[in-house]
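Colleagues,

Please find the record for the four-part complex below.
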Amino acid sequence: MALPKVGSIGEYIREQRQQAKISLRQLAAAAGVSNPYLSQIERGLRKPSAEILNQIAKGLRISSQALYVQAGLIEDREPPSDVLTAIQADTHLTERQRQVLIDIYESFRKERHAEDEQTSQNARPRRGSQTDDEPLPEEYLAALEPYAATSGNDVTQETKEG
Amino acid sequence: MALPKVGSIGEYIREQRQQAKISLRQLAAAAGVSNPYLSQIERGLRKPSAEILNQIAKGLRISSQALYVQAGLIEDREPPSDVLTAIQADTHLTERQRQVLIDIYESFRKERHAEDEQTSQNARPRRGSQTDDEPLPEEYLAALEPYAATSGNDVTQETKEG
DNA sequence: CCACCCTGCTTGCAATTGCAAACACGATGG
DNA sequence: CCATCGTGTTTGCAATTGCAAGCAGGGTGG
């Protein structure tokens, strides 16, 4: 027994940690666990208890549920779009904002799902289920305006990596 | 030494079990744990791991999440916004996508209400890492521009060390 | 060069989980 | 009356968690 499939949870944690750009020790401290233990967890050598998992989630500032799902401790019954439901239920958003968010979210989902197609085409797969009557790109920018004043910087090429 | 706060989880399980009108041994069998252990759990003498908890939840046919919340292993979701929680819990998103969505959502919120309570981020590597500090402005554009294309996985700044 | 600080990893060891076996106590009934 | 089945509980014990120390090695600089 020991460590057959537990790997994914550890990998997931390590991914999240590295994306957050913090060291193992930092996360360990933030989560209140020892560094060696966290190391072992990340490499799938140990199966952390729920408490530890929860603390790690806090340290990473991610949802505990996401971690539990990764760990297989919760049925993945929040599948297609808990997000969509939440967005639609959010009364703080204007209708337009809502549409934009939904649109973006769906496109993100598509992005991930279509990991086979390496097309260099173009076109906007915008297929939102919204009452579409005008493009919204500038909506995005408008939303980002108060955020990022810097502009004119897009280098994004392919470099697809899995 | 005691497991002061864990009491509720055991009581909760016992309640649920009795409501289901099944014996301790029956639930133990259904959950795949030993009867004595379940007994101890119910009385708060033992702190079950997430796995066991999950199995018990299955045996009781109740939501794992409900149990985890009872056990204090999941934050009692008090969401300033359910959307954020949903986004964070969505395992289908890449971390980058998650960040973008969150930031956009927050900027939307700010547009309407200029109140903020934000991210007290800490734990920033001081040495031997990048000095980058701001979020990811152009990331938004990168993410939105193609609207649905494989977003770059490469961070522009990584090693600033010469 | 060695000292220092950072990174992650390996090594024993105390404390804990989780279990099999056996215990207590009550019904049912031969 | 003693056997048998039912409930939940107590008692050791193997296996595991989780940690304090210590190890290996990359940078920086005195």
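Helices of chain A lie at 7-19, 24-31, 35-42, 50-60, 64-70, 82-89, 95-113, 137-144.

Comments are welcome before we finalize the supplementary table.
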